[in-house]
Specification:
The chain has about 575 residues and is an alpha+beta fold. It is about 45% helix and about 10% strand.
Length: about 575
Amino acid sequence: MKSDVSCRRVPLCRKFLFAALLTLAGLCPPGLVHEAGAALRARESVSVEAATNPQPAADDILLPMPGGLHMAFRLVAVPAKGLLWDMPLRPGRDDAANNERAFYDRRYAAALAAPFTLDDLPDGWRKAAPKGSHYFYLVAKYEVSRLQYDAVMRDTPPDTASLAPDAARPVTDVSWYDAVDFTRRYTQWLLQNAPDSLPRYAGDSRNVGFVRLPTETEWEYAARGGQFAGTQQLMQEDFFVMADGTNYADYAVYRPEGAGRIEEDVERIGSRKPNPLGLHDTAGNAAEMTLEPFRFSVAGRLHGSAGGMVRKGGSFLSGEAEIMPGRREETPFFLQDGPAHARDLGFRPVISGINTPGGDRPETLVAEWNRAGESASPLPAQDQQAGRNPLEELDRLLASAPNEGVKKNLLALRTTLKENNIMQERQKQLEAQSLLRTGLYLIETIRNYASRQQSLDSQLVLMKKDVKIAKGEVKQRLQKLITQSTEARKQYGTGIERTLSFYLGKLEEAGRLDAALFTDSMTQLGKDFPGSDVFNENMRRNMDIFTRQTQEARRGKALDRRRILQQILAK
């Protein structure tokens, strides 16, 4: 009895060893070793939730997995006005321009689109979709955990009654080919066991969504915050916008310079804060594989040589520079001893689909192509006859072509002209969005100058009151502050006037835009400011002001500086 009491008083983490020693001495009941071992395993085990979705959110999209598990995904929305339109992006890093990694990480021209329309998504997923014209893909909320990997890759489902702590860590030390095989097996399992959980194209009974690795552009757009990051943030930020009072360590498992403690292995999935899209561990923890091969970034485009696999996001072994979303690393598909793998490299899948399904999609694509570039003209207005469209003129010539040779040449010319028109149409929209965005930020700049000026006015009133009763050195300091504040107030006033002049010029430019182009560009621009914080609310207010004032400019109404300024500063 004495030995039993003594054994119960020992902390659980040492109970198993102590009980075993007592057993060897013949002093502990025979069943105690098994009891202590079971208790120790139970305390160290993790829950299924910790290994699948440790930070659940109401708008998570959960797909089933073998063994009663699930995988959490987030819906990614790509703004576009049609199936043949895409979103221009510049992946990479700005600070890579003048260092030895410029040809790795320098920003380059890219574009992003997605295959699914709102009608292609299951009903339950649509609540997570933003308003407006978007196309969609899904990205896993976390890196694939070891439990999830085993559930798909093993013939028998894992025992979830008592999971080892490693079950909740990202799976690593697997090759790119293993990751691709995981996506194949998981898709096949879903088709056989839960086909309704995948997106299906409206009107197409054959094609269905599938699981795969993300492209580099898909990965980086999602890692930067997706639809919750505005165009300016995507183009200018090297990281996503972090919440006030947070730093990189709140979002990433990595090795900060000078850190007193560093991680020696990947942490559990979801151990850090999510990015604006709701994704965890896109920075640090396990680096992540992408679908396509690595190419150098040279002269604003990707180089022609396709090498190893693109590795993104950095890991627990990485420094700060390596966890930036735009960082680009190359990993070989094979080493001398076989497929390459690393203890800090894992993956997260996406759900995508084909671009050319059946149903109404082929007819819609053809209709969009037929409309594209038909109304635009590559020639300046003064060089055209009134009401004439060069493509229409070519169509007339085609109708009366004397032979097949002439007809073939005219068709080639028409195709070239149409492609040029499409390129100009896209360029016009980008230029229009840039113009409008500048106008919105100029309004915000004017308002900030005025706010600072008003703050100084309040301080000056108090200081002028205090200086009347102050004496000696205090009086001298107050007089100096009054002089400095008066000069600063004057500079803010100059800033307001100069910015207002620039803004009026942008209003006149906007007033000359085609009305449909202005409306469409403003709609697309509005997607940059979806949040409910002060900044986003101010920018939406600026959009209303700019739209009203542009309408006045379009009607030829004189742009009175005082009235324009009053409208901007009105409460």
